[in-house]
Every structure is written in C-alpha cells, then in structure tokens.
Specification:
SH3 type barrels; alpha+beta; GMP Synthetase, Chain A, domain 3; 3 helices; three-stranded mixed β-sheet; elongated
Amino acid sequence: MNLRIQEIISDVEALAEPLLNFEGMRLIDVEYQRERKGWVLRLFIDKQGGVTLGDCAIISSQLGDLLDAKMAWEEPYHLEISSPGLDRPLTKPKHFIYFKGRPAIIKTNRLVEGKKYLKGVLAGFSEGVVTLLVDDQPVAIPYETIVKAHLDWGPP
C-alpha cells in the first residue's frame, strides 16, 4: 500500500472514530482503493446487536460532510459504510480483541499444536499472540504465523 493511501486511511480513522463512538458504534476497518467505478472509501462499522441499514445511512451522511469539510481530496471518491458481515475477515490485531468470544477459523503458515488450520473461539490477543479456545483448550497462535483468519458462522 502506498504512503498516500496509508495517510488517507489514517486521517479518515482519526475523523471517523470519535463520530462512531458518539453514536455508540465502533470502527472495524477502513479501505481506500481504486475500483472500476473509481476511488472507493469503504468503512466497516459495528455495534452491540449489529449494524442496521439506518445506522449506515446516518454515519454515511454525517461522515461524508465531515470528510468533505476536513480533508483535501485529490480525486472524487465513493463513500461506502458497511457492516463487517458474519464471516468477517480478521486482518489486524485489534480485530482479535474486538471479536473476542466469537467463533473463528485461523490458517497458519506453520504447525501450531500439530495443525495449520484451527477452528475455535477467540479468547484474546496479547503480546503478538492470538489465543483461540479449541475444544475448550487454549491454543497460543503467534500473530506473525497467521495467513488467513475470519469469523466462523457456519455449521459446527
């Protein structure tokens, strides 16, 4: 990711988080990328009990005005506000903290307790280690070994 995109994402996070906190929501992730329809700024938000379409519309309106007033955009962009979804990818350390207690699937690049594919319940993140309860037993997974992780809402 280039430096300009990282700066934009950082600036958007700084503006969005206080607004979302005030509205009782949390910022899960921000993406800013060029797509077929042009530049897309996509924010994933969540709250206790889940996000509604109305929540997304309110945040889109308020945040859109805030972004237009506070940021200098070099090119037009489309703002999208969305829920993280039921099978949300876990791509940052803060995701493993926020989604603690939820079922997840983690794939690693080396064996962890004899497996590269682990399914269980997120139990925490500390000092670069994700703890996953697999069959009610804690498994320590070094964050740097994670290739792919997402919430698991499929059948047991």
